[in-house]
């Protein structure tokens, strides 16, 4: 009886300890600030001031200045690999001070994104689905003493609100009023299969290696009914102007082709991509990414 | 009675757990080492060897090589946003191996900065105030086994001492002997208002966007008695040579002016700054930062 | 008696709490991915999904693309400063998809390196010694649901396995089958002393400052029997072609020589190095690093 009481006390305390350690409390930051000044560090200082138990990470801070499209793409590329409950703070905000809303999106996958609603949520909302959106009520969710500073929302509103949400200081409901489930979205060409041609766009480069990543998924690509090693005719356009035209095999291993030769492969997101083995496709052929870049792929006989 | 005893035991253990988790133990690193080699990682490895409970962050490692002025500026810009008790380790040390002292400054705000005393403390000492300074006693505060290595103080003395201080292995008093409250300071032009002209300098650029940040604070700026939208005549000098001369409005929102047009605004530190909306002021007008750059601002009628 | 029982319970729980907090659980990542996209962040997301108690750090992600030699060098330079038990995940993998094995090396110093066995382990195996090597069994150690993705081993195999090992989800023995203690190694010139000349190679630059680091250790260097301030005749070759030839003093402090002048010193790894005081030796003299760069040093009378 006494032993039972001791044991129950023991387990109560044991699980208390476990629980204290097991909280997730993860915040991941993305900006176009770069890492040369103190802006990102100030955001993290604000977060650690909210709670020193938070775990802070970076997605990237090298989004090209004002490039909302790339911010959207990086979120879609990365969020699925983080545990549910993770809070992302994304600040690429060319309209700071204008009428764009500050929001928190909760995806159906249970991730949170704190961001200006300027198109940044375009792709993640499509791929993970919208569970709920709330507008940040800045009268409640703003770093104390920051009311005079109107140009660094990243630190005073977004980092502060993201940290409070991740630390459990406020529940999602206290972010601010619920919005109808609509967000600002950016236009871009969807992948299509028509007359034995697949069209799509180049949302982003695999920048370190200069590989060309398209938005053409494995399922759409399968409509060409290719076998490993089959040849493709690939054309790449900037607006309507043809920039690249070539023949390349579809392979699963870069080293199948000689150094410097082109190849088509499925990247780590299982999207159609083009590369030169051990060389830089983008630099060599002046192919870049964005909504105004498109591709055409057909089987080469 | 028995219940009371259980409860008191429970709370004792509860607060013990809390306390074990709640310790701050934050170290923030700043260097001019860059992130291409293993130097920063070696510093963090030394810190984690002191205590795996420490939480390690970065201010920046992209300080231009040997640029003490910029190191000083980044500390002043960032430290106020971190909780009291945070330990900063700043290593920009062109005089490594020479007679400069290794010190730890405790500010009146309760932050600690571990650094060579070579001017790095100029600005933070002015803005946060000096609570105490101690010289690092390297006979006691030096990584064991490192005595033969005389060129990487950042790892063997600064990271090691900062980590021990943050982890509570040593109290501040055991850093080494107290110094008189004087530090090495760098010269720079203070902001002044005279004959309806404000003069100041350009301590730093908002490098990612190419905006020009001055050291002219909101209070000094208010002496021009401007309203939002009023025009300013701005001149920028390198040494005594005029590099830029132009008219721009004082606004609170970048998007008030057309893309590419100049504007004057208060930055996130509430200092007077100049920008081109969605363009790079610094690159376009060849304006840079440092003690030898100065500005003149007057009201334009 | 009762007090003793309480006390024992107290200490049991106390050490339980301590132990929960005291686990090391450190993972350090190195890649050639850069930080501009989401690849590194996805790896960290996978690790945090394995266990939110892990502590994640970076060695560098700026290894030049496909440069296995530099990956090997950065590991050797950095690993000794991290506590035993730390898990390094190094992904520089030009042969991804080819026959190279995925392995985990345990060094005699108690560090773990998760990497493709493509030469990355050349230097750390020499300096720290091989305790054991196991090949990663991808049927067991691969992120669930990742079987279709064959091009991002860094995320799906290396980060996942490194995180599971560091978190204690699997012991080292469960990585996969033990391999004979042999690894793939890269060729490079060892330091030698012969006819009063020391020869060696330039494994790497101190890239931020442009200093030239050789693989000539202090002990080999001592065979020239130099005193501080003595002059050296230094020649540097790319393949067999002489690129630099000059006289410089051996000093312990950069500021001993005038700004812009050359000097020879022992770097933080206690290897012979060359620098220009407050200038960039590499850029000025077009001297770079790699297996094909060598140096000759002799005493200058």
Helical fraction of chain A: 10-25%
Average pLDDT for all residues of chain A? 90
Strand content of chain A: 25-35%
Oligomer: homotrimer
**Spans of chain A with pLDDT under 50 lasting ≥5 residues?**
17-23
| Alpha-beta classification of chain A | alpha+beta
Number of strands of chain A: 16
Termini separation of chain A: 82 Å
Strand order of the largest sheet of chain A: 2-1-3-5-4-6-7
String of helices and strands of chain A = HEHEHEEEHEHEEEEEHEEEEHE
Shape of chain A: globular
Quick one: which chains have the greatest interface?
Answer: A-B, 40 and 46 residues
- Radius of gyration of chain A over all CA atoms, rounded: 23 Å
Individual helix count of chain A: 7
Largest sheet of chain A: 7 strands, mixed
Task: Briefly characterize the structure.
3 copies of one chain form a homotrimer. With 301 residues, chain A is α+β, with helices and mostly antiparallel strands. Chain A has helices at residues 2-22, 39-50, 68-78, 122-128, 153-166, 218-221, 281-285, and strands at 26-31, 55-58, 87-91, 102-107, 112-116, 130-135, 178-179, 192-194, 197-202, 204-206, 211-217, 231-238, 241-249, 262-266, 271-276, 290-299.
